[in-house]
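Deliverable D2.4 — example input (C-alpha cells):
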C-alpha cells in the first residue's frame, strides 16, 4: 500500500485501475496537519481494511473520502 500526497501518482493509478497496482491512499488536502493525517490514516485502515487488501484507491479531500475498488482481471 502507498500513502501519498502526489497528485500525479494518484491520477496514474486511477486512470489504469485495471493494472496490477498496490492500494493507494491519496491525501488531496495539502494543508492537513501531521497529527490529523495520522489519525485519518488509522481510521481509513480500519474502515477499508478488506478493500485495501483486495486493491483500491482511497482519496481524502475536504473531509470527504472516496473509495474506488480495483477490478481484478
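Example output (designed residues):
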Amino acid at each position: 500500500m502507498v500513502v501519498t500526497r502526489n497528485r500525479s501518482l494518484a491520477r496514474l493509478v486511477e486512470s489504469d485501475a485495471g493494472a496490477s497496482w498496490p492500494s493507494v491512499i491519496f491525501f488531496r488536502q495539502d494543508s492537513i496537519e501531521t497529527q490529523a493525517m495520522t489519525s485519518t490514516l488509522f481510521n481509513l485502515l480500519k474502515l477499508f481494511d478488506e478493500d485495501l487488501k483486495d486493491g483500491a484507491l482511497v482519496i481524502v479531500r475536504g473531509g470527504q473520502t472516496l473509495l474506488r475498488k480495483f477490478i481484478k482481471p
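The first strand starts at residue 2 and ends at 4.
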